[in-house]
Amino acid sequence: MKKANWAMVSLVTVALLTLTGAALSSDDNGDRSMFSWLKQAKQGIDPLDSQLYTKECGSCHFPYQPGLLPATSWETIISNLDNHFGENAELAEDDLNTIRNFLLNKAAGRSNYGLPNKIMAAQGDRPLPLRITEMRYFLHEHSDIPKRMVQDNPKVKSFSNCDSCHQSAKQGLYDEHDVNIPGFGRQGD
Ligand code: HEC
Ligand code: HEC
């Protein structure tokens, strides 16, 4: 084998070892094997890979993953940042273009991950809202949670604060077994 090929082989080996290490170290509650970790990552949503997005769109609230909304909704949000749910969230032209591409490329319906596909399927041909919390899939999954745990809970306040309850929301994992409603404890067990 040529030198370059050997370099390639060791690169791949290092990558595999790193992946295995990450999988094993995420084994925090004992019952999660490497395979269920891989399965979970696949069922989740594209992880955030744009630091710019996290910085600009995560300063006022949780930086929602692109796969949580369809492209049409993101396009409308991005085109109206001067009046964004009553706030001014305008961006410089360059940043705006980078963030628009980031959101549109990974929007629900354009991603191979499981959750965005489920979100689109549940919506059917109903109108597309601007809020994740108004998508049919979202409403369906959260319909049993009483007001005292959300709006009347000072540690949550609104369904828009995903990471108040979903402990792995930043990693794009919304598994129902990873939910902990502050003041009410773990759910879904
Ligand atoms: C200046 C503060 C601010 C910035 C910066 C900001 N937002 Fe928001 N955003 C808000 C407010 C306020 C709401 C409404 C929250 C509520 O009603 O609880 C909101 C709501 C949202 C929602 C709806 C959440 C839901 O309830 O489903 C989305 C989606 C959203 N923002 C995306 C973005 C994106 C994308 C960016 C970056 C381009 C961004 N936001 C930057 C203030 C901001
Ligand atoms: C008040 C706490 C709370 C907040 C805030 C919240 N969720 Fe949830 N979520 C839950 C609970 C509890 C469940 C499990 C519901 C059940 O299975 O009965 C759930 C379920 C889900 C599921 C389905 C998971 C599965 O394994 O089927 C998804 C996806 C999800 N939430 C996404 C979100 C997103 C995105 C946000 C923010 C826009 C959010 N949630 C905000 C409590 C919350």
The helix/strand series, from N terminus to C terminus, equals HHHHHHHHEE
Which small-molecule species are bound to the chains here? heme C
Question: How many E strands?
Answer: 2
Low-pLDDT ranges: 16-33
Characterize the main sheet.
2 strands, antiparallel
Rg over CA atoms, rounded to whole Å, is: 19 Å
Q: What's the total helix number?
A: 8
Strand order of the main beta sheet, please? 1-2
Question: What is the end-to-end distance?
Answer: 53 Å
Query: Strand content of the residues, in percent?
Result: under 5%
Domain module count: 1
Shape: globular
Indicate the structural class: mainly alpha
Average pLDDT, rounded to a whole number, is 82
Helix content: 40-55%
What's a concise summary of this model?
The chain is mostly helical.
Describe the structure.
By secondary structure, the protein is mainly α. The chain has one domain (51-184). The protein is 44% helix and 2% strand. It contains eight helices and two strands, in the order H-H-H-H-H-H-H-H-E-E. Strands 1-2 form a two-stranded antiparallel ribbon. A hairpin with a 3-residue loop joins strand 1 (180-181) and strand 2 (185-186). Helix 4 runs antiparallel to helix 5 (93-105). The protein is globular, with a radius of gyration of 19 Å. The termini are far apart. The model is unreliable at 16-33 (pLDDT under 50). The structure holds heme C (HEC) (2 copies). One heme C (HEC) is lined by residues 56-57, 59-61, 64, 77, 81, 84-85, 87, 89, 99, 131-133, 158, 160.
